[in-house]
Design brief:
Length: 133
C-alpha cells in the first residue's frame, strides 16, 4: 500500500510521522494509541504522545483512519475500509474484522424507528479459535 499517495489523496502532507503511523496501523490491523506510541518511540525517540494524537485526529477527520470502540477496552484505530464489524476474543483480546452486510439490520432499524442512521459499530465478543483449543 502506498501511504504517501493515500495521504496526498486526502490533502495531507506525507510527514515521516504520518507515514509511519499509517504503516504501523496497517501492519497491526488494529492498535491502541498507547501501543502505537510505544512502537513509534523505538523509531522516533523524540516523538510525543501529543504528536500522535494530533496526527491520528487529523487522519480520522480525513477518513483515512477509523476509531474502533470496543466494550471494556481502550479504543483502537484501523485504516478505513469498507463497512464492517469486529470480533474480539474475551480471553486474548484479539480484534478481527468481519465483513457482513449491515443493510438488512439498518433497514429494520429504519422501519422500527424515526432514527436516521449515519454510522454503525457492532462488536461481537466471544472466544477465538486459538483460545478455544
Amino acid at each position: 500500500m502506498n501511504f504517501k499517495d493515500l495521504l496526498a489523496q486526502n490533502e495531507l502532507k506525507a510527514t515521516p510521522q504520518r507515514l509511519l503511523i499509517t504503516e504501523k496501523i496497517y501492519e497491526k490491523g488494529h492498535i491502541s494509541i498507547e501501543d502505537l506510541f510505544s512502537t513509534l518511540k523505538n523509531i522516533f525517540p523524540t516523538i510525543s504522545l501529543a504528536t500522535i494524537y494530533k496526527n491520528i485526529n487529523k487522519m480520522v477527520e480525513k477518513s483515512i483512519i477509523e476509531e474502533v470502540k470496543l466494550p471494556s477496552q481502550k479504543n483502537m484505530y484501523e485504516l478505513k475500509k469498507q463497512s464492517h464489524s469486529h470480533t474480539i476474543c474475551k480471553q486474548c483480546n484479539k480484534v478481527c474484522d468481519i465483513f457482513v452486510s449491515m443493510d438488512i439490520l439498518q433497514q429494520q432499524i429504519d422501519s422500527l424507528s424515526d432514527f436516521d442512521i449515519a454510522d454503525s459499530s457492532i462488536v461481537f465478543v466471544g472466544v477465538c479459535k486459538e483460545c478455544k483449543s
